[in-house]
Predict the structure.
Amino acid sequence: MNSVSHATAEGEFEAADARVFDRLDTAAWLGLLLTLGAGIIFWLSNRFFDATRGDFFYLADAFLHGRTWLDVRLGPQDVILLDGHIYVPFAPFPAIALMPIVALTGPQVADQWETGINAALAAATVGMAWWFAGRAGVRSLVDRFALAVLLGFSTQIWWVTDRGGVWHTGQLIATILTLGCLIELWGCRRAWLIGLMAGAAFLTRAPLAFAVPFYALLFAGDGIWEPRRWPWRRWFWMAAGVLPSVAFFFWYNAARFGSPFESGYGLATLPAWLEQQRQLGLFSVAHLGMNAYYLFGKLPQFSLSFPFLRPDGLGMSIFLTSPGLLYAIRAPWRESRSWWLAGAALLVLIPTLLYYGGGWLQYGYRYALDSIPFVFALCCLAAARDEARRATVGLTGRAIGTGWLALIAVGVFVMALGVYWAYHL
């Protein structure tokens, strides 16, 4: 190649690179603006100060001082009183994650900042939804925007952010960690990092332990049917990443209650009516009908006056709060990864449906948040497939149809009414 042709080729490559980076920069900037905008909306709408349960901030302070118990009782329920100490029954990783903030401000100030911290966590889920959609192959910025809005504003993300309190901070952090695992699986696929995040998610919301086998299956892909193609090295490093969280879980239980298998959920103080539920079993098929009804069938009363829906705080059908998630049915089901995502969503949901607690007080069924990131991922795969199909006939632009966008909008409207009910339930 002579110098002229070499310079021409070099110029063409630079121009192509510039176009790629321009597009990446545009998408990145839009994602950043969307995240900031979502954070502002979450912060302005979560002025619910009555939750008064910043347990994780005080547990973080306890960890910083070498203790596993609190020096203050923050509420009458959901605490463990044992041998003169006050323990937190909730899984501990959120407190670990919040330790840097508490180290700088102290637990009281951090507790006062809870609304802003939760708004930032919720905004992060929106930004990560945008990020994952791009990783999953969604090219249309309109489609990516619709998918990010679906996760952030048509699921219980908005409700738990508005409501505040220890129960909901943990669910926001668990969602971030699950999205982190999915982003990495569709990105660099660093097994040790996925293991660390999956372990942290388990230490935040225990049902997410059931997602770990499906992360392993996603590493294998279609090769799972051929043992000679199994990614043993990646599985090893993922297991190594999960192991510290498992070890900490058993140590933490033993340090508090003398048994590595006692998490504390069976020891927490409860109101009498909820104690009756727990006596049927911490996990039991006796709770299945109740939880399935709250997740799929429960409807509010409808009214012609604002705010049109009158919930009772026990739950609400996901078909009303998040109908846009039905777009997942258009995922590419001939690909094994769609089935692994669906399997993760289902298996993570099972212990939730068998659990006595029900998730009260809630607008919608907040425990479903453990499974929703996997369903959201299926929605992203569906959008990428629909875009690819349109491209084969020369069509560009958004692929999510008007009907699906309308369902997302319905969910956003329903969850926006939850801002009102955060103050009035």
Observations:
- Residues 113-257+272-424 form one domain.
- The radius of gyration is 23 Å.
- The chain has two domains: 51-111, 113-257+272-424.
- Residues 1-21 have pLDDT under 50 and may be disordered.
